[in-house]
Amino acid sequence: MTYYDRIGVGYAEWRRADPRIERRIHAALGDARSVVNVGAGPGSYEPRDRCVVAVDLVRGMLEQRLPDAAPAVQGCAEHLPFPDGAFDAAMAVLTVHHWTDVEAGVAELRRVAARQVILHFDLTWQPTLWLTNDYIPQSAMLEDDRAVYMERLLSLLENPVVETVPVPWDCSDGFCGAYWRRPEAYLDPAVRRSISSLSQLSSEDVEPGITRLGQDLASGRWHEHYGDLLALDELDLGYRLVVAGQ
Hints:
Shape: globular
Largest sheet: 7 strands, mixed
CATH architecture: 3-Layer(aba) Sandwich
Number of domains: 1
Number of strands: 9
CATH topology: Rossmann fold
Radius of gyration: 18 Å
Structural class: alpha/beta
Number of helices: 12
Mean pLDDT: 91
Low-confidence stretches: none
Distance between the termini: 39 Å
Strand order of the largest sheet: 3-2-1-4-5-9-6
Strand content: 15-25%
């Protein structure tokens, strides 16, 4: 079982589309009437007012799609099973860092669609997140090892435009930075299983930091260091929306 299969358990519950981020993605799709969602998982962020086809590598992810979700096929970004120009737009939400060959994957997005909409993250902002900076540094090292740096991604696209996507304090999509103002959430094993950078790590890499986080929350030490965050409604953690093509 790969870690993709492990994080597939409960993914539909914890990785629900955040409506504010969703509006940004749908606006970026422009007037596209047909969309392929690559790395789709259970279907977060898929527009329901357009013709959508989903693609995901992991069967367990696709099995969590609702009965009325868009049709889906099992496949990988590097070899999309569609003819040239089959769609008006291709979307890829927090998935590029999982691809084995980014150049091939982006080339496929460009081959099957004239417009590409990609939600990714800029690793230079990683120290901003206290979780990976102070409690689980192995997560930061993992992301650095499998990193797709923004400059590399942009170099593969035509006329890319980059938009900052701040993370709301009550973000409903439980990616790694979603709980920056809700630290207690990281104590929940189910939450951690839905975060790929944590679920890929061994318990020896994660549990000591989580134990210390629980202790710091109980003692008030976390609030002494990070209490200022509680006054913010959103935070820039490096998540970026990239729009390219026509």
